[in-house]
Amino acid sequence: MYDFPVGGIRERTHRLPRERYRGTVIASFTLCVAGRKQVFTDASLFPSVDVLLKRSLAESECDSPVYLFMPDHAHVVLQGASESSDLWRCLVRFKQYSGYLLGQSSISARWQKDFYDHILRRDEDLARHVRYILDNPDRKRLVDNWKVYPFKGSTVYNLEDW
Questions:
Q1: Angle (nearest 5°) at CA 21 between 96 and 103
Q2: How buried is 135 (Cβ within 10 angstroms: 0-12 exposed, 13-18 middle, 19+ buried)?
Q3: Range(s) of the domain holding residue 48
Q4: What is the pLDDT of residues 60-119, one digit of tens each?
Q5: Residue 98, in any domain of the structure
Q6: Domain with 152 in it: what CATH number?
Q7: Taking a C-beta distance cutoff of 8 angstroms, is the pair 61, 19 a contact?
Q8: For the purposes of burial, counting CB atoms within 10 Å of the CB of 71, is it exposed (0-12), middle (13-18) or buried (19 or more)?
Q9: What one-character DSSP code corresponds to residue 14?
Q10: Rounded to 5 degrees, what are φ and ψ at 52?
Q11: How many domains does the chain have?
């Protein structure tokens, strides 16, 4: 599948049709920082990124059971709150909002163009998926316990209860 934007440059489209991201679906996204630049290592940037993610969630009628920002990538699980929710649009908005912030910061970073995603089937265990994401900083030896990792959140759960 290819798109042909202005200028005739051939560009690959995203792998799933947009309608798969609409409604009360749940999907897990991984966004990578271009060049695998280490961005999320300083606690001063995360509060602004957190606000921008929550803004995108509200604008797209989505919730996030978990989001976690590793130094060079982010994991974001999105859940449609209504039939008019649009997870793809939510993620694209977030990348636009936060991309501007990253570019203007002293780090001068940007997101890679696309993202990896996985739409969770009805029989998949969301709690197990959330826990796997929360364990990432521990697996990468950034912390001894995921609960002390500062770059995470949820609009659905109190993560301290996990």
A1: 10
A2: middle
A3: 18-156
A4: 999 999 999 999 999 999 999 999 999 999 999 999 999 999 998 878 899 998 899 999
A5: yes
A6: 3.30.70.1290
A7: no
A8: middle
A9: P
A10: -65, -35
A11: 1
